[in-house]
Amino acid sequence: MLYFYKNEFIKKEELRISPDDRGYYFGDGIYEVFRVYNGQIYEQEGHMQRLQRSASEVRIALPYKLEDIESILTKLVHENRLIEGTIYLQITRGEAPRAHPFPTEAHPILLAYCNEVKRPIATIRSGISAIALEDIRWLRCDLKTLNLLPNVMAKQAAIDHGVQEVVLHRNGIATECSASNLMMIKNNVLYTHPANNLILHGITRAVVLRIAKALQVEVHEEAFTLEQLLQADEAFITGTTVEITPIIQFDGKPIGAGEPGQLTLKLQEEFERTFAI
Ligand code: PDD
């Protein structure tokens, strides 16, 4: 696989990363994960806007113009002949001896590569189980930064409990999941946490809300509690890698009939039609 690192396209085996990269010491950087379907980058513009916003909020200057970053991604997909998969892109603040203040001399470093990844079709069709877990992250979850230790711990907690995902909550109010957004349906109304500082403003979240509105589904961007989630008719997670994956069991109890719900199936169908997947 051909990678992009520090101004050049390079083979993974030839790529060398310095321990002085601030991403390595401090998680001092930002990232995006893009989906590729049929050789095309899905919702590229939304990802680029979010990248730009994360960079500006953490005060990292993008090393290239947005259109040049887009060309790098296109070339990676093309050169690696990627039809179905993901692209990972990260930008760190640069290389400098370890010290907390922003280094004055460092230049931001862009790393990007793609992976062949199939859609997780089994869980998309059958659904997953989740448990509740306290959301111990910082108060800027809207920024896609490299500081993912709480997310990693959360995902592992799910695995340790024999389930696939956690529903993060602050004082009983559900926010999102370890690497996806959360939605529930009650009486044909779709609820999801507002896009504020407590959740990532997911690209798939926005796509699903768009699709729901087009289907005349009532959408409330309103926070809900864990108890409300337990009483929901349907629930699902959304994300670049998970698409729309139903949650059929929460904290050991079935959600709705304990199988993917009718509206969830309709949204999935429309999602697949929209992206021709
Ligand atoms: N994660 N919430 C969190 C905490 C996430 O990490 C992600 C995505 C999402 C969904 O966002 P989007 O629809 O834009 O993918 C929500 C990526 C895939 C990851 O970290 O691997």
From TrEMBL:
Q: Looking at the record's lineage, which domain of life comes first?
A: Bacteria
Q: Identify the InterPro entries for this entry.
A: Aminotrans_IV (IPR001544), Aminotransferase-like (IPR036038), BCAT-like_C (IPR043132), BCAT-like_N (IPR043131), Class-IV_PLP-Dep_Aminotrnsfr (IPR050571), D_amino_transT (IPR005784)
Kindly list the GO CC terms recorded for this protein.
cytosol
Which keywords label this protein? Aminotransferase, Pyridoxal phosphate, Transferase
> What Pfam families is this protein classified in?
Aminotran_4
Q: Which cofactor does it need?
A: pyridoxal 5'-phosphate
Question: E.C. number, please?
Answer: 2.6.1.21
Q: Which GO terms describe its molecular function?
A: D-alanine-2-oxoglutarate aminotransferase activity; pyridoxal phosphate binding
Q: What CDD domains would the database entry show?
A: D-AAT_like
From the UniProt record, list the reaction(s) this protein catalyses.
D-alanine + 2-oxoglutarate = D-glutamate + pyruvate
Biological-process GO terms, alphabetical = amino acid biosynthetic process; carboxylic acid biosynthetic process; D-amino acid metabolic process
The record's listing under SUPFAM superfamilies reads: D-aminoacid aminotransferase-like PLP-dependent enzymes
Q: How does it assemble?
A: Homodimer.
Q: What family is this protein classified in?
A: Belongs to the class-IV pyridoxal-phosphate-dependent aminotransferase family.
What this protein is called in its record is: D-alanine aminotransferase
